[in-house]
Amino acid sequence: MNDRWLVAAENLAAILEDENQALAALDLPRAAGMLMAKTVCIDEFQARPADLNESDHAAAVAMLERLALLAAENRRLLDRGIKAQGQVIGVMANLVRQTPMAPRYGAKGGLRRECAPLTLTLSAQA
Predict the structure, then answer these.
(1) From CA 1, how far away is CA 110, in angstroms rounded?
(2) Is the model's pLDDT at 97 over the cut of 70?
(3) Is the pLDDT of residue 4 over 80?
(4) Would you list the DSSP string of 61-118?
(5) Which of 76, 97, 121, 123 is 20 to 30 A from 17 via CA?
(6) Alpha-carbon distances of 85 from 1, 5, 13, 16, 79, rounded to whole Å
(7) What pLDDT was estimated at residue 48?
(8) pTM above 0.85, yes or no
(9) What are the residues facing 116 on neighbouring strands?
(10) What is the domain partition of the chain in residue ranges?
């Protein structure tokens, strides 16, 4: 088996394991920070031919099965993280709707009758 293929496969498995740990803990900023490294690992893995011979077949199949399991778990955890983030945004949106209107002042310094809602800024980092 091509050692470079195996190293690329092991690197990809390692980054998926790390990202899955972050996602399992709902540490979305840490997981998102791994995107570039994961993309590099995927590109390297796809660029390396396995060049299998008969004796390497079982090891390659085992590695591919491991990667498939890690990728499936990664997808499940990503979906869970996205759902959790959506729920947080929903809670924040409900809080904004429930916030009483803040008084506003007119051009002459007096209170105006119409009121505007308090402003809330959300910052998302992906």
Answers:
(1) 80
(2) yes
(3) yes
(4) HHHHHHHHHHHHHHHHHHHHHHHHHHHHHHHHHHHHHHSPPBP-B-TTSSBPSS-BPP
(5) 123
(6) 42, 36, 26, 21, 10
(7) 85
(8) no
(9) 102
(10) 3-98
